[in-house]
């Protein structure tokens, strides 16, 4: 099925935004401007964008430690995110959460998450709410190939089936959990079969190909939205950076990174496809690139100038209301 | 004596224990590293490098796992129950949230529930504490929580020398031991002998000796408090600085004897205050040394809040030199 031109433009813009955001964050970490632990999504852009293309504002996503791409794809403001990463009190989370906890509940972003597989159970709760309210919403959890070995992930998958909740489990296989290969950490040979054994369909896609992810996610999300219970998406695509910035990446095969960047780039693939079909012109795409670059540059300028938090703010927002009686 | 970092001191203890006793093994996420990859298996040695080199010497006893904290702790507990001496690594103490049952309901209680008929000589290591802008899920101390559970021994080293001796004690200990490594101290050095030595549990270290005020501090707060006390000495204020080193068992006598001599007590910990170690020690002194006290006890801790991300916020969150110094002076006012 043809994808509307608006959707294509938006998808490309969003993938480019994620790419430039991440590359700039990488540079700012090297410059010592961004504190804490940061995990970059570069290379995996099509996963987030291909999935979120099917979601509207009140569908929810929950994300991971590698969450910038998911949040941008679901509509988080780039400048608010950049300020958050810089630790400003004007950041999306007032500088309280940083990279691993970017969230925007109003936009259906239930948060990046520092606990591997912390997200899937929470997403089942959001899906359950949609089922009870009969509002046709779905809840998507993103998590990595490492997360699938966590008890919370198993529990969430099984319970989503038991409750027939419209939960969509998007598993991003980038082949590693930190420094450990999926070949080691997943004991069986067929993770798709293992996951489907819970009782829901899993649609597999090449994560370097926006159109493949878009199609697989479309099937999974339609399945869940139609009231058929949960569904899964496996998107397979390596990350271009280390697990964290500064990771020596001793687990990589010789030439692996070069091959990834050269031959598995969702942005390059997207442009090649557009050149082939003629749906979008080079000029249109180049214009987006320029706009995105300017937006990212502006976000960094703004983040550097943004207000810094003060000591009184430490104890704000722990509760909504909290009064100890004397 | 050679200077070593806390990271290397613990690493050396692990190597020596494994050399000496074949029932010792390490297990956890990336304790070897790169398993199943085309790259260099064993190259990681734990994300903080504490288990570096072990895989290359003892590949069978350096075991990478999936991300499965409950199964890691459970496997350590089970192996220990049948006579092994596992040293499991949980990458961040915060992840106790994931494996709490295996620690608290299982390994902690075996011996008691089984009428004294079992042994569970497992060690679980954690990186612990704040100071990295790592926010709410990667910064917690957690040892104060775990101290409240009977059946667990809880260790919190504050320097490389202690870390090595305490780790060797932990591995030899027949009870389950939780070993919290303040991650901000991994790079800090002290003199550490090459040979094996142990430091007994329940024996506090007097880091400084003085007459006016007793200061009790834990983990990363020990070097902070020591610096404050050295500065106060210039002003003519002299303090005992007690590092309990193990929070369970706790060297109550060392604390009480010091308080009886000084009459003033300040307790410093990085964790939030409620049901924590500062309250615990304050309660101990109020109960058992009340008549010696010349001033109200002062507790210096983080506020009742999660750990914030932003560096400015975290700096305000963690106890600092000013807060420790003010507390000491308040007991003298
Ligand atoms: C409960 C828990 N265990 C361990 C970690 C440390 N950790 C952070 S990310 C990560 C690897 C996650 O791998 P995967 O799920 O494949 O996601 P990826 O990093 O590849 O995106 C690990 C082990 C954590 N944050 N939470
Ligand atoms: Mg992965």
Describe the structure in your own words.
The complex is a heterodimer of chains A (326) and B (333). Chain A has 326 residues and is of the alpha/beta class. Chain A has one domain: Rossmann fold, CATH 3.40.50. Chain A has twelve helices and seven strands. Chain A has helices at 5-30, 45-52, 68-73, 78-86, 119-133, 151-163, 182-185, 191-196, 210-225, 256-263, 266-277, 282-305, and strands spanning 60-62, 139-144, 167-173, 176-177, 180-181, 202-206, 231-236. In chain A, the strands form two sheets. Chain A has a five-stranded parallel beta sheet, sandwiched between helices. In chain A, strand 6, helix 9 and strand 7 (231-236) form a beta-alpha-beta unit. In chain A, helix 4 packs parallel to helix 12 and helix 5 runs parallel beside helix 6 (151-163). The longest helix of chain A has 26 residues, at 5-30. With 333 residues, chain B is of the alpha/beta class. Chain B has two domains: 3-191, Rossmann fold (3-Layer(aba) Sandwich); 205-332, 3-Layer(aba) Sandwich (Rossmann fold). Chain B is 36% helix and 18% strand. Chain B is built from twelve helices and 14 strands. Chain B has helices at residues 6-20, 54-57, 69-81, 96-107, 110-113, 143-146, 160-172, 221-234, 252-262, 277-288, 311-317, 321-332; strands spanning 3-5, 24-28, 62-64, 85-92, 123-128, 153-155, 177-182, 189-191, 205-208, 213-217, 239-243, 246-248, 265-268, 298-300. In chain B, strand 13, helix 10 (277-288) and strand 14 (298-300) form a beta-alpha-beta unit. In chain B, helix 3 (69-81) runs parallel beside helix 4. The longest helix of chain B is centred in the N-terminal third of the chain and has 15 residues, at 6-20. Chain B is globular. The N and C termini of chain B lie far apart (42 Å). The mean pLDDT of chain B is 98. At the A-B interface, strand 4, strand 5 and helix 7 of A face helix 3 and helix 11 of B. The complex binds thiamine diphosphate and magnesium ion. Magnesium ion binds next to strand 4 of chain A.
